[in-house]
Amino acid sequence: MAHRLSPRACRAAAALYVGLVAVGVVAHALADGPPDNTVPLYFATLPGSLLVSVFALYPAVALFGPGETETANPYGLLVPLAGGAVLNVLLVWAALTLVRKTVASWRAAR
0.90 cut: is pTM over it? Predict the structure, then answer.
């Protein structure tokens, strides 16, 4: 018999994941760390960070212009990485819902 996680535990795990990514980005920004130190955060948020960058940030720059270099992105990496973490949570939720519905329909078809 498979062990099932409660919805509350799943929500807590998702919030912990997004929170840890956000804390990591803020800690990196406050420590003025080199950009090479963000590689683990990028790997932890793939593919969400890539999707947020390509489908949200790049089109926004194309529509509104790059702005001044100091004020163009006052949040630094927080938007692509924390947004990517949120998007990853939504992607996992959608995939699990699809699997659950597919299995239920297969069982009903028997």
Answer: no
What pLDDT digit, counting tens, does each position of 9-47 carry? 999 999 999 999 999 998 888 888 787 788 889 999 999
Beta-carbon count within 10 A of 48 CB: 23
Q: Which amino acid is at 43?
A: F
Contacts for 81 with CB less than 8 Å, ≥ 6 apart: 21, 22, 24, 25, 38, 41, 42, 45, 49
Residues in contact with 48: Cβ distance below 8 Å, sequence separation at least 6, in sequence order: 83, 84, 85, 86, 87, 88, 91
Per the structure block, which two tokens stand in for 90?
């939504």
* Residue 19 near residue 78 (C-beta atoms within 8 A): no
* Per-domain boundaries in the chain: 16-109
